[in-house]
Amino acid sequence: MDLRFVGFDYPVLQTLQHMMDTVGDEPDATTAPTRTYVRDAKAMAATPADVKEYPNSYAFIIDMPGLKSGDIKVQVEDDNVLIISGERKREEEKEEGAKYVRMERRVGKLMRKFVLPENANCWDE
């Protein structure tokens, strides 16, 4: 049903109309996003980064609290996608009788992906 024919022509309703028009066009379960994709998307959203451009290089400044440098994995995928990742695990209770009353620090996967320029030399140190 086209909502414009009944006098509704607002942007929100246009979005609703588009959603109703595309029902049934979704991919089936074999091509739908996986849990890994959703987990990676959350990890990227929760990992802030700054990128500095120099004349001949880039610097990536990424917040990964609670991780040691040895816990951070840096790799290049598809020749020009830089992936920086790590995982912060929950600390084990060390003191007998003590328990957390509040836990606000994030645990789980931290990750960022950056598409590098085509002419980036990823292999020189």
TrEMBL record:
Q: Name one GO biological process term.
A: response to stress
| Record's keyword terms, sorted | Cytoplasm, Stress response
Zinc among keywords: no
Would the keyword Cytoplasm be found if you checked this record's keyword annotation? yes
* Entry GO terms, CC: cytoplasm
Highest taxon of the lineage: Eukaryota
Can you say where in the cell this protein is located? Cytoplasm
Where in this chain does the record put each SHSP domain? 40-125
- Alphabetical list of InterPro entries matching this protein: A-crystallin/Hsp20_dom, HSP20-like_chaperone, Small_HSP
What family name appears in the similarity comment?
Belongs to the small heat shock protein (HSP20) family.
- Alphabetical list of PANTHER family matching this protein: HEAT-SHOCK PROTEIN 20 FAMILY MEMBER
Protein name (record): SHSP domain-containing protein
